[in-house]
Structures are given as structure tokens and as C-alpha cells.
Amino acid sequence: MANSPVETVRTTGDKLLLAVAGLLVVAGVVAFYTLEQQALYVRVAAIVVILVIAAFVASMSQTGKGFLAFAKDAYKEVGKVVWPTRKEAAQTTAIVFAFVIVMALYLWISDKTIEWAVFSLILGWK
Length: 126
Hints:
It is a single chain. By secondary structure, the chain is mainly alpha-helical. Helix content is 79%, strand content 0%. It is built from four helices and no strands. The protein has helices at residues 12-34, 40-59, 62-80, 86-122. It starts with 11 loop residues before the first helix and ends with a helix. It is found in: Membrane. Keywords: Cell membrane, Membrane, Protein transport, Translocation, Transmembrane, Transmembrane helix, Transport.
């Protein structure tokens, strides 16, 4: 799926499933604010349940199935990543800080040299 073309929703069934999922999301938000007299955990539970149902409905469409396949592939790829050790991360960070300090000094010296050349040599200001 590296260079897969952009997929569009083609069938009426897919459009309907995604529309229902969108309406469920809106209903979840409305329910959250409608239940303002209830305890917070009841309100959060209501919106979470409705969002899970919306995700399930959306996953039934071709677009949702494609997204789930993409998510599974992405999860597999994250498992293949070779993460740096603590020592490697510390060394890389130290190199970056050293480079930043060297560049800051270089730019400061360049700025002061140009300032001196312009104001002292060219304009004759003291």
C-alpha cells in the first residue's frame, strides 16, 4: 500500500454508512451536553459508547476497511523501527547542542564583524 491511489467513496451504501457514522458522532456530542445534569462519568460513558458504535459503523464501509488495513500496516511498521538506546539518544542530543552553540558563536562573530565594518570603516562612526 506504499503508493496506493487516493480512494473515493463510490457506492451509495458506503456513503450511507459514513453519513450514519457522522450523525452518530454528532449525536454523541449532543448527548454529552444534553446530559449535563448527570455525573461526568455518565456523560463520558455515553459519548464513548456512541463513538465506538460510530467507529464500528464506519468500519463497515470500504473506506473504513481500507483505513483499518492501513492502521494495521502502520502498527506493523512501528514494530520494525529500531529505536536508539539511551546512550545513543544522549550522544545525538549532545552533538546537536554543540552544533547549535558553534553556530550561535559563528553568527554572533559574523554579526559583530559586519557591524564593525559598516559602522566603523564605512560610516566612520565611533
